[in-house]
Amino acid sequence: MAEIVPFRGLRYNPEKVPDLAEVVIPPYDVISPAEQDRFYQIHPHNMIRLELGKKTPQDTEEDNPHTRAGNTLDRWLSESILVREPKPAIYYYELDFTLGEGVRRTRFGFISTMRLAEFTTGMVKPHEKTFQAVKNERLRLMLSCRANLSPVFALYSDPSRAVDRCLRQGKEGEPTLSFADAWGMRHRIWALTGPRVLKEVRELMGDKAIFIADGHHRYETALKYRDIQRERFASARPDAPYEHILIYLANLNQEGMIILPTHRMLRHLGAWEPESFLQKASEFFEVARFPSGPEGERQWRTALESARAAKENAIGLFRQGDDAFYLLKAREEAVSRHLEGKGIARVLHRLDVVVLDQVILRHLMGLDEGFLADENNIHFKHELSEGLDGVRAQVYEAGFFINPTRIEQVQEAANSGLIMPHKSTYFYPKVGSGLVIHTLWP
To answer: CA 65 to CA 46: how far, in whole Å?
Structure first.
């Protein structure tokens, strides 16, 4: 089902940029303004200048972050800051990283291009909601740069790991790219150009469905860009570059596939009455209270983790000025009745993020879409301790803490054609921008 296509990627010229750690950045949507400033300062050829350029009060239709990115890309090409791969390649990628508990893991995958397919074909399966404003912004950047600057992160199922074995057998000598980044992760990438391995990978991937893990906005934007170019270049070849998208593919059947939880941190709750909330919550949840202090926190964390192991819906609550931690364990029948009344498919009833979004935030607290879509009201944290510290420091009025969505839940939702709430998953680590670029001009 997936048509994998080797390509001649653009890469940083090692003679001009010897240390990729100075120029590779995370995906645009996880970069804070402070990080954006830091990336600008690290190196004059940092990818931030293409992926997420700075705005100025003087911006116009002709001079703005998107047009400046396009001009910068053209200049880097003319100055050989970026150089094109001499042969079509697939990039085998090994990424070493450490989880919070200090366990070192390796995720295996590869970067390629893939022929774009509409979601209606069932070949590519999304699982998260997208926002039109974000897609509009990414389209303006793509039209200016005429390139995929960063890959969509996608998954496929290969329990026998045949694709991984083929890729490992195809690598020769030292990595084409190798560096350690500021987060302690080690990146090793080989450009595979041998006809045998390229042919075998394409054949092995030919019957596999693709699940988008991260990059839904980029994928939908690429479909729109493709349609625009089809109108502009009606006589172009059917394999024109814009018919394809830059993609990082990883086997979901591996230990290195990690999903982090996405906790909801709330502000500006106004007249919210916590005691009344807990009373109403008892209709849908068994509410357990843990005393404040280190021992109470330890017990609360353990209870949340135990619910994860038992595959139970449980949501933690910690609020500003309170002397307790709370655990809300779902009463399955009551929760399902409410979700069914909202027209939510039963497949999604076991997702903590759906229960939190629909039952707690929208029903019990009465928060509407406008409130929840406003980044001034809700922040997302992946580290539980960071979220707790934010409440203690009075940055947030309350935090709701959930267990991560499981990979099989993502598969089940995507296979059923269902869309999860925004920020349902956080696949870790993200795939950076600046490893290789896919040009789209015909």
So the answer is: 15
Report pLDDT for 419.
Answer: 78
**Secondary structure (DSSP) of 405-420:** PPHHHHHHHHHTT--B
Distance, in Å, from the CA atom of 6 to the CA atom of 45, rounded to the nearest integer, reads 26
Which residues, in sequence order, are bridge partners of residue 286? 329
Crossing angle of helices 216-232 and 132-145, in 10° steps, is 50
373: number of Cβ within 10 Å? 11
Residues in the chain: 442
Task: Classify residue 377 by burial, with Cβ atoms within 10 Å: 0-12, 13-18, 19+.
Answer: middle
- What pTM did the predictor assign? 0.89
Distance CA 114, CA 229 (A): 17
**How confident is the model over 281-307, as a mean pLDDT?**
95
The whole-chain average pLDDT of the chain stands at 94
- Report whether pLDDT(1) > 80: no
The string of DSSP codes covering 354-402 is HIIIIIIIIIIS---HHHHT-TTTEEEES-HHHHHHHHHTTS-SEEEEE
Helix (H) / strand (E) element for 352: namely: helix 352-354
For residue 136, what pLDDT is reported? 96
Cα 344 → chain centroid = 24
- Rounded to an integer, what distance in angstroms lies between the CA atom of residue 218 and that of residue 224? 10
Instruction: Count Cβ neighbours within 10 Å for each residue of 384-415 and write b for 16 or more, e otherwise.
Output: beebbebbeeeebbbbbbbbbbbbebbbbbbe
Burial of 380 (0-12, 13-18, 19+ CB in 10 A): middle
- As a whole number, mean pLDDT of residues 149-177 equals 95
Question: How sure is the predictor about 321, in pLDDT bands with cuts at 50, 70 and 90?
Answer: confident
- With b for 16 or more beta-carbon neighbours within 10 A and e for fewer, the 17-53 pattern comes to beebebbbbbbbeebeeeebeebeeebebbbbbbbbb
The structure tokens listed for 116 are: 């774009």
Return the closest-CA partner of residue 433 out of 260, 218, 286. 218
CB 90 within 8 A of CB 196: no
Cβ 401 vs Cβ 327: under 8 Å? no
| Distance from C-alpha of 182 to C-alpha of 241, rounded to nearest angstrom | 33
